[in-house]
Amino acid sequence: MLVVQKFGGTSVGDLDRIQNVANIVKKYADEGNQVVVVVSAMAGETNKLLDFANHFTKTPPQREVDLLVSSGERVTSALLSIALQAMGKDAIALTGRQAGIKTTSDHTKARIMDIDPSKMKKHLDEGKIVIIAGFQGINENGDVTTLGRGGSDLTAVAIAGALNADKCEIYTDVDGIYTTDPRIEPKAKKIDMISYDEMLELASLGAKVMQSRSVELAKKLNVDIEVKSSFKPEIKGTLITKETPDMEKVLVSGIALDKNQARVSIFGVEDRPGISAEIFGKLADKNINVDMIVQNVGKDNKANLTFTVPQTELELTKEVLKEYENKSESIEYDDSIAKVSVVGVGMKSHSGVAATAFKTLADENINILMISTSEIKISMVIDEKYGELAVRALHKAYQLDK
Ligand code: ADP
Ligand code: ASP
Ligand code: MG
């Protein structure tokens, strides 16, 4: 069997944890499996490196940022290989480039274009455990790129796809996907099986346990994923797959919280055809991820436009919108918001799910600033300080603790 095993930041957080990973990997290899391991940087390392870069300027050059942050995963890949070789296993550590991962040029959020698996295959055929530095690839100029925060998940899924692996295991610090972040609600329940679609919503709405782009790719390539704990590897985790047996029965599968968004409001902008296309076109040109757009009905030829962007893209957003300071009455930025979302495929065929969410927040005296819905989710923007409270109240309202 060929298995891809990915270990996240806490799982390789110090030398003891790396030894623990080496033990898990060795056990698999000793059972006769071929193993490809993808590692993250040690917990906190990527943030530390980003802080270093931001010390000099608010907008450090993205090419150099990528070169800098990609080093975190190189450290852990080399250390894991050293640990395994010290235990008598044949292993080799590879950077993203050496593993054949080619990406677009969009520094800090590059997309994987192609993987040339020949080098990995050669090493596997020679009986080696192949260890890959996650989160990184190389663009057509030969520059190092990174795949967005949490991007080692994407590396693992992409490699599982490219090698046609039998299994893709994501080892982290929780033993599976829960009905909400167990750090926020200890009563959260572990889910045995979850569909790609639901996991994709949870992940893109803030459940950082899986990077959303990795789930998107898993769905596209039909790679089944098991999320499990490196602290308790013997415990069965959560299977992320195409369809689950009780999909239609479950109304709400989980609650997600995203505190990394910021709100932008442009008041009194000229109300004419093409104004939205113009503003959002300019933001798109800078690769800014706009979400949850609300435009009110115009009055006196003026309109108000409110939307959210990731906090990390707020500075760039301000730069882009500078020219609208004179073309509007005012622009307001607020990074103390939270987006709380209720997700469930079962919502498609039930009514009243949204009403329950609004009533629950009202009962807690939480004001809703923005709302957006799709077939399988309801998202509400609220004041950041009520984020956790809202999660717990909604978790209870939909009886997810039962
Ligand atoms: P890693 O470093 O292994 O990639 P992350 O910190 O990125 O791990 O993701 C794991 C964390 O995700 C957990 O510690 C947990 O707090 C958080 N999390 C958020 N939502 C959920 C959820 N629905 N189920 C499980 N964990 C969740
Ligand atoms: N180290 C990177 C991050 O912190 C990638 C990852 O952990 O998956 O975002
Ligand atoms: Mg992660």
Characterise the protein shown here.
The chain has 402 residues and is of the alpha/beta class. It has 2 domains: 2-173, Acetylglutamate kinase-like (Carbamate kinase, 3-Layer(aba) Sandwich); 255-397, VC0802-like (2-Layer Sandwich). It contains 11 helices and 20 strands. The strands form 5 sheets. An 8-stranded mixed β-sheet has the order 3-6-2-1-9-11-12-10, with helices on both faces. The structure holds adenosine-5'-diphosphate (ADP), aspartic acid and magnesium ion (MG). Magnesium ion binds at residues 8, 150, 153, 208. It is an enzyme of class 2 (transferase).
Strand content: 25-35%
Taking the alpha carbons of the first and last residues, their distance comes to 38 Å
Question: At the first level of CATH, what is the class of the largest domain?
Answer: Alpha Beta
**What is the count of structural domains?**
2
Give me the secondary-structure category: alpha/beta
Work out the helicity level: 25-40%
The biggest sheet amounts to: 8 strands, mixed
User: How many β-strands, per DSSP?
Assistant: 20
Named at the architecture level, the CATH assignment of the largest domain is 3-Layer(aba) Sandwich
